[in-house]
Amino acid sequence: MYGVVIDKIDAYGTIVIHRHIQPDLDALGSQLGLRNIIKKNFKNKKVYVVGEGGDYDMFGPMDRPEDHVFEQALAIVLDVAGKDRVSDQRFLDAKETIVIDHHRNPTDFADIFISDPEQVATCQMLVQMCKDEKLKIDADAATYLFAGLTTDSGRFLYPATDATTFDSALYLVERGARIQEVYNLVYEEDLNKRKLRGYFINHFKWTKNNVAYMKNPKTLKNEYNVSTFTISRGMVNQMAGIKEIPIWANFTETDSEDILCELRSKEVPIVDIAKKFGGGGHDLACGCTVASWDETDRILEELDKIAERIET
Hints:
The chain is α/β, with parallel strands linked by helices and 312 residues long. The chain folds into two domains: 184 residues, inorganic pyrophosphatase (n-terminal core) (Alpha-Beta Complex), CATH 3.90.1640.10; 121 residues, Diaminopimelate Epimerase, Chain A, domain 1 (Roll), CATH 3.10.310.30. 39% of the residues lie in helices and 18% in strands. The chain is built from eleven helices and eleven strands. Helix 2 links the parallel strand 1 and strand 2. Helix 4 crosses helix 6. It is globular and about 60 Å long.
């Protein structure tokens, strides 16, 4: 499956690696990991990683190539298949585009689409590529990939975690992945963020059929001095692990007044709800963006119907 990726990398002198907006560690880990993998295994390649900053800027700076760089480049887009969610839209100017993604979404732009929704992380897909194609991985690449593997598997707790996930983790550790560095990045946080967790625990609500939810106004980030991403993606699982709660949702208003919707479920797939509102993702972890609080109420109604069927 990955041979075509290797052939394309070999054919191009310039490769630009993209990922989705509001990057998590699977997006950044796969992006930075692939950069190092290409540099270690292919000679005389110019490799750029691009995109806006985020909560994990300390993981490595992005490059700022000029526009003309894209004209003869291969663009590799990781962890996202939809055109509108790709960070740095200049991938549209590339000569050829590859997407490598593990979400249950079709692509609307790629020339080559490598999709495997059974994989817990895009980083895991890149580990598989390295194993299949006998590519070398340095300690930095192993660390980046381990970060994405760890977080997208929910610290190896999510149902999609399987023997392949643990085998991939072992493979990366054997190649020098700095486990403690990743855990410090994931678990250590400032006092404001810890207080925000307390706010969520004390303020979440639930529907008739126990769908937990939070509605976060855009002013909340200033109150706790955190980013919108921290409130949206970073806090959704404060409602996880509660015996009575089968499904939970986190709705966060952005500065542009769109509302980010993070949807999660213990066991029953909910990705079709995210797709219905223009999003997508995994069966049990997905999301979308809507324009009004009324639409979040409609999402809750849909989720509540699913929760009602669980109880009966």
